[in-house]
Specification:
With 73 residues, the protein is α+β, with helices and mostly antiparallel strands. It is 21% helix and 16% strand. The chain is elongated, with a radius of gyration of 15 Å.
Length: 73
């Protein structure tokens, strides 16, 4: 059985639901994102909701974990 990548900071005391939510958020946050201005894949989060392209310097406000905030159900 293959082991999944460990989630740093969450031990056995955190339940399965919490670890799954954390891993989904972390995966979305660290994924490469495309700059809306220059189309390079260098868009990174500066702070909560502030995203900046390292290539062209374009700054955009977006969601906390993704440039385009997820729609709530």
């Amino acid at each position: 059985m293959a082991r999944s990548k460990s989630i740093r900071g969450l031990g056995a005391k955190a339940g399965g639901t919490v670890r799954k939510r954390y891993s989904n958020v972390h995966r979305v946050l660290k994924a490469k994102k495309e700059c809306p201005s220059c189309s390079s894949m260098k868009l990174r989060r500066i702070s909560t909701g502030i995203w900046q392209c390292y290539t062209c310097g374009y700054t955009v406000a977006g969601g906390a974990y993704d440039v385009v905030p997820a729609r709530s159900a």
